[in-house]
Amino acid sequence: MRILRGEFPAVCPGVLGHEFAGTVAGVGTGVSSVAVGDLVAVEPHIYRGICRSCRDGREHLCPDRRAFGVHLPGGFAEHAVVRARNAYPVPDGVSAPVAALTGPLGCAPHGIERSEIRPSDAVTVFGGGAVARSRAFLSVNDVLWYTHGGVRAGPGPNRGASGGVGW
Questions:
Q1: Which residues, other chains included, contact 151 with Cβ-Cβ below 8 Å and sequence gap of 6+?
Q2: Residue 161 Rama label (left phi>0; alpha psi -120 to 50; beta)
Q3: Residue 116: which region, alpha, beta or left (left: phi > 0; alpha: psi -120 to 50)?
C-alpha cells in the first residue's frame, strides 16, 4: 500500500512478489546451506550490513535496504537471484505457498509481542494483507479490523469472530 501511495520508493515497472518461496535452480561457488532442488523460503530484504542499524542487529532500519518485489524482481519473476543467507530451506511436507507465508507469520507474533498487548485489550488491525490477517488471526483480543473490504468487529478469530470498514 505504501508503494501505491508513493510513500515508499520502488522500481516501476517491476515484478511484484515480496513474500515468496521457490525451488533452487543453481548455487554459487562455496554455497553449502542450500542445494539445487531445495525448496526455500526467501527473506525478501537485502541489507548492506555496514550501517549502524545493521551492526546493531536492527537490519530492518537499514537506510540502504532493498527488497524483492520492490527494488528487485520479486517472486512473480520466472527466476530470482537470491543470496544464500536469504534462502531458508523448508522442511519436507511444507508446500511453497505455505513457505511463502514464513515472513508474514513471523512478523505477526513479533509485532504482537513488541506491542505488549494483553488478552483483555481490544485491538485495531489496519490492512487486509498477509501480516494484518496473521495478526488478526493470532489475536485473542477483540478486534476492529480495517480493510479495503470494510470494517469487521468482534472477538479475535481465535475466539470465534469476524467483522470490518473499508477505505
A1: 144, 145, 163, 164, 165, 166
A2: beta
A3: left
The CA-based dihedral angle spanning residues 17, 66, 22, 127, taken in that order and rounded to the nearest 10 degrees: -40
pLDDT at 154: 53
- In the numeric block, the cell 528487485 is attached to 72
Q: Which three cell numbers stand for residue 43?
A: 527473506
Assess whether pLDDT exceeds 80 at residue 87.
yes
Cell triple for residue 28? Answer: 554459487
Report which secondary-structure segment, H or E, holds 134. Answer: helix 130-138
**pLDDT (tens digit per residue) in 121-167:** 777 777 767 777 777 767 655 666 566 566 555 545 444 434 443 33
Give the pLDDT of residue 167. Answer: 34
Q: What is the CATH number of domain 20-100?
A: 3.90.180.10
Q: What is the DSSP letter of 159?
A: G
- Domain map of the chain by residue range? 20-100, 103-159
